[in-house]
Amino acid sequence: MNDLILVEPAKAHEAQVMAFREEMQRNGEGFYGCSGLDNTVTYDEWLDFEGRFARLGWSPSTTYLGIRISAGLLVGMIDLRHELSGFLLKYNGQIGYSVRPSERGKGYAAQMLALVLKEAENFGYKKVLVCCNKANVRSAKVIQKCGGVLENEVVHEFSPVGRSDIIQRYWVETC
After folding, report:
1. How many angstroms separate the Cα of 175 from the Cα of each of 116, 119, 145, 147, 150?
2. Which end of the chain has fewer CB within 10 Å, C or N?
3. For residue 25, what are the domain limits?
4. Beta-strand (E) ranges in the chain?
5. Do the beta carbons of residue 154 and residue 90 sit within 8 Å?
6. Distance (Å, rounded) from C-alpha 33 to C-alpha 94?
7. Dist CA 148 CA 120 (whole Å)
8. What would the pLDDT profile of 55-66 be if each residue is shown by its tens digit?
């Protein structure tokens, strides 16, 4: 069942985005594909992607909200990064995504990834790099379900002390 659409964030989404943020924080979750939502104070500050990204030296990207059509509910976020070099090329890839904890296990991550692959194709990308931590088996399955082919695994050089996080790097065709 595909009950999901991707929309670009607008002022009208403020309450839902901030509720998403609260749920992620309350559960101690990482904010993957959320364009720095965890590092901003206000919704308006978060909406200023281009200005904030330029100030921080981040790659330009397009952020989408995954909205469940039947309920009008924000279930997740996904980010399509438009430059692939350095850190992104080695560890993060061109696409990052998060599904709110209360909506996991319902297929939304795979739906969001499939939808953003169409957007990537519209931007002219023939394939994109999608990465995940090897320990995140559910994310690896999502990427594989959407056609991801494992290129290699790398040890994340910025892993917390005492850990050696392994990053899986998958290439996914857009067409």
Report:
1. 12, 11, 15, 10, 18
2. N
3. 4-173
4. 4-7, 61-68, 73-81, 95-99, 127-133, 149-155, 166-173
5. yes
6. 10
7. 14
8. 777 788 999 999
Instruction: For residue 9, give the nearest of 58, 70, 56, 50 by alpha carbon.
Output: 50
Residue 53's DSSP bridge partners are none
CATH value at residue 40? 3.40.630.30
Which residue carries 């509720």 as its tokens? 19
Q: Into how many domains does the chain fold?
A: 1
pLDDT at 1: 55
Q: How many CA atoms lie within 13 A of 129 on its CB side?
A: 21
Q: How far apart are CA 73 and CA 65, in angstroms?
A: 10
